[in-house]
């Protein structure tokens, strides 16, 4: 029986690398995967999932208007799909997370979502909120703070490396704009 999985973490925990490895494992066994990534995230080019260690794969794009169930169902009717993988899943809408539950429940295709749990203000993203609520299985991918503890928060930095405490929830950036830290260093840097 298919399930909806949510693999979450702070930045630089290897979410995209894990997604790419999972897709490869399916394809190596002669199975078909369909990989999605957020249209808003163009850090490494448009229409591909890229890991920091240098591996990449082409991906279909989703934005807030994409009907994932409809797209996946049409693709599945043309060519059987064995697994759906979604990178940057924090950018999914509530409706899209529901659509992914329909892919699992009606089409019996496993869906593996990878994304951030919270933003730089420690608030849940919409996609993450509903994946945490509706996923059949949750798994935290771990990374470390500069002090060596588990990092489960993200700081946003300006060009001078100073912590930014306010702003829009979504600002695309990599290591030059964000730093994964433990709770203690998050509270210290944010002045909590």
Q: Could you name the key traits of this structure?
A:
single chain, alpha/beta, Rossmann fold, three-stranded antiparallel sheet, 5 helices, 29% helix, Thymidine kinase
User: Count of DSSP E strands?
Assistant: 13
CATH superfamily grouping? P-loop containing nucleotide triphosphate hydrolases
Number of domains: 1
The CATH topology corresponds to Rossmann fold
Label the structural class.
alpha/beta
pLDDT below 50 for ≥5 consecutive residues: which ranges? none
Helix-strand sequence: EHEEEEHEHEHEEEEEEH
Order of strands in the sheet with most strands:
5-2-6-7-1-8
Number of helices: 5
CATH architecture: 3-Layer(aba) Sandwich
Subcellular location: Cytoplasm
Subunit structure: Homotetramer.
Catalytic activity: thymidine + ATP = dTMP + ADP + H(+)
Protein name: Thymidine kinase
Provide a descriptive summary of the structure in words.
With 192 residues, the chain is α/β, with parallel strands linked by helices. The chain has five helices and 13 strands. Helix 2 runs parallel beside helix 3 (94-107) and helix 3 (94-107) runs parallel beside helix 4.
Itemize the secondary structure elements and their pairings.
Elements lengths: L3 E6 L5 H14 L4 E6 L9 E3 L5 E3 L1 E3 L5 H11 L4 E4 L7 H14 L3 E6 L9 H9 L2 E4 L2 E2 L5 E2 L1 E5 L5 E2 L13 E4 L1 H8 L2
Parallel strand pairs: 1-7, 1-8, 2-5, 2-6, 6-7
Antiparallel strand pairs: 3-4, 9-10, 11-12, 11-13
């Amino acid at each position: 029986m298919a399930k909806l999985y949510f693999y979450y973490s702070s930045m630089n925990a290897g979410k995209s690398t894990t997604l790419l490895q999972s897709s490869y494992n399916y394809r190596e066994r002669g199975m078909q995967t369909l990989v999605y990534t957020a249209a808003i995230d163009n850090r490494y080019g448009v229409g591909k999932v890229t890991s920091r260690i240098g591996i990449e794969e082409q991906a279909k794009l989703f934005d807030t208007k994409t009907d994932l169930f409809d797209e996946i169902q049409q693709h599945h009717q043309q060519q059987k799909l064995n697994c759906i993988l979604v990178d940057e899943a924090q950018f999914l809408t509530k409706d899209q997370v529901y659509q992914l539950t329909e892919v699992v429940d009606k089409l019996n295709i496993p869906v593996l979502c990878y994304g951030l749990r919270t933003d730089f203000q420690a608030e849940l993203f919409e996609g993450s909120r509903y994946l945490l609520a509706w996923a059949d299985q949750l798994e935290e991918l771990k990374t470390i703070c500069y002090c060596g503890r588990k990092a489960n928060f993200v700081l946003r930095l300006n060009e001078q490396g100073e912590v930014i405490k306010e702003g829009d929830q979504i600002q695309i950036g990599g290591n030059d704009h964000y730093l994964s830290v433990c709770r203690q260093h998050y509270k210290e840097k944010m002045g909590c």
